[in-house]
Amino acid sequence: MRVYNFSAGPAVLPEEVLKEAADEMLDYNGTGMSVMEMSHRSKAFDDIIKTAEQDIRDLMNIPDNYKVLFLQGGASQQFAAVPMNLMKNKKAAYIITGQWAKKAFQEAKLYGEAIKVASSEDKTFSYIPDCSDLDIPDDVDYVYICENNTIYGTKFKTLPNTKGHLLVADVSSCFLSEPVDVTKYGVIYGGVQKNVGPAGLVIAIIREDLITDDVLPGTPTMLKWKTQADNDSLYNTPNCYSIYICGKVFKWLKKMGGLEAMKALNEKKAKILYDFLDQSKLFKATVRPEDRSLMNVPFVTGNEELDAKFVKEAKANGFENLKGHRTVGGMRASIYNAMPIEGVEKLVEFMKKFEAENG
Ligand SMILES: *Cc1c(COP(=O)(O)O)cnc(C)c1O
User: Fold this and answer.
1) Is residue 316 part of a domain?
2) Cα distances (Å, whole numbers) of residue 345 to 40, 169, 273, 324
3) pLDDT (tens digit per residue) in 309-335
4) What's the mean per-residue pLDDT of the chain?
5) Residue 125, pLDDT score
6) Is residue 90 classed exposed, middle or buried when 0-12, 13-18 and 19+ CB atoms within 10 A define those classes?
7) What is the CB < 6 Å shell around ligand 1?
8) What is the per-residue pLDDT across 76-92, written as a single tens digit (0 to 9) for each?
């Protein structure tokens, strides 16, 4: 039996995609082998990666002057790759809205001067700071954000005013959840295991002029974007299976109506949960309304024992992985693209029942 899986990542995938992959497990498309068993230089895999690239380009409306790279090392590896490839002046501005932004900031400090230009740490990252008029030094190489904060459940609803500087965004937990204007960014990257596919793959969308040989001395060959771009993400063996599953998710997203349709559906799903939380006497959302993520919804009862009881009873009723991150406590429901609306409706029903019994 399938459960409703509210995990923050690795996370729920579309059932249709998993079934297709199961059907193709022993014999992919008449090749007589699994995608896991074939050469990354084979014709079959070449079709898989090229189709995947075209489909994500269509979905996100990615302009021709941006490269799409399929890389390994997770989003965390890009915390280092970003400064290595972009820090020409050895200076960058970071907006700290949670642990992932902080980790990226700390990593950047290994390579140059990383400057914290805004932070929401004073209130446990429960909001997005005003970024309309930040004090950004003229000579920074880029401004960095984590666009959706997986742990704290906040999302930038408007992008920061970078004062003309390059914007770099980690979109791991909001990847493909709504349309984006790619031209507003220099670099967009995300680990796919939150909203797209199996762990171990990061997709980086990088403006072509930023992909150069002018990287920090000592940059490993593998971390130089140019190495990867010159080899169409096949410099070495990529994460073939994850690319294949992501390709299927891209097809599924197209069939669902693309990112406009996903945004409408995600808004509808999130509203069901937030509306309930805002009128509940027992449960409270932890993020201020204007900054709430459509993907990750943290909430608390204010009583740790009751939180633990809720998580336990929810699990017994088929709602998995609702325990909040250890730094926030309470609960977190991650309701990514592949979470069906019924999952959210049934969770809210269950929460009402729990409230009636424990309020
Ligand atoms: C999960 C996550 C990461 C880390 O991803 P890895 O692929 O495990 O390195 C980075 N940023 C955000 C926003 C995340 O949600």
Assistant:
1) yes
2) 42, 32, 8, 20
3) 999 999 999 999 999 998 889 999 999
4) 97
5) 97
6) middle
7) 9, 74-76, 100, 146, 150, 170, 172-173, 191, 194
8) 999 999 999 999 999 99
Count CA atoms within 13 Å of residue 333 on its CB side. 33
Confidence (pTM):
0.98
Our measurement of the distance from residue 112's CA atom to the centroid of its chain's CA atoms, rounded to an integer in Å, reads: 26
54: domain CATH number?
3.40.640.10
Residue 99 in this model has a pLDDT that exceeds 80? yes
Distance, CA 107 to ligand 1 centroid (Å)? 14
Q: Is the preceding peptide bond at 10 cis, omega within 30 degrees of 0?
A: yes
Examine the domain organization and report whether 274 and 251 are in the same domain: no
Distance 253 CA to ligand 1 centre (A): 22
Tell me the helix, strand and coil percentages in the chain, rounded to 5.
40, 15, 45
- Secondary structure (3-state) at 29: coil
**Can you give the CATH number for the domain in which 312 is found?**
3.90.1150.10
> Of 191, 225, 255, which one is at a domain's C-terminal end?
255
Q: Which atom of ligand 1 is nearest to the CA of 100?
A: 11
Q: From ligand 1's centre to the CA of 336, what distance in Å?
A: 15
* 76 CA distance to ligand 1 middle (Å): 6
Round to whole Å and give the CA distance between 187 and 225: 11
CA 125 to the chain's CA centroid: 17
Range of the domain at 275: 258-358
- Cα 44 versus chain centre, distance: 28
The reply to whether 57 and 83 lie within a common domain is yes
pLDDT at 257: 98
Q: Is residue 52 part of a domain?
A: yes
Residues with Cβ within 8 Å of 308's Cβ and at least 6 positions away in sequence, in order, are none
Q: Which residues of 13-40 are buried (b: 16+ CB within 10 A; e: fewer)?
A: bbeebeeebeeeeeebeeeeebbeebeb
Q: Looking at ligand 1, which atom is closest to the CA of residue 74?
A: 7
Residue nearest to atom 5 of ligand 1 (CA): 75
Q: Which residues are the active-site residues?
A: 100, 170, 194
Output the residue whose Cα is nearest ligand 1's atom 8: 74
The pLDDT of residue 297 is 98
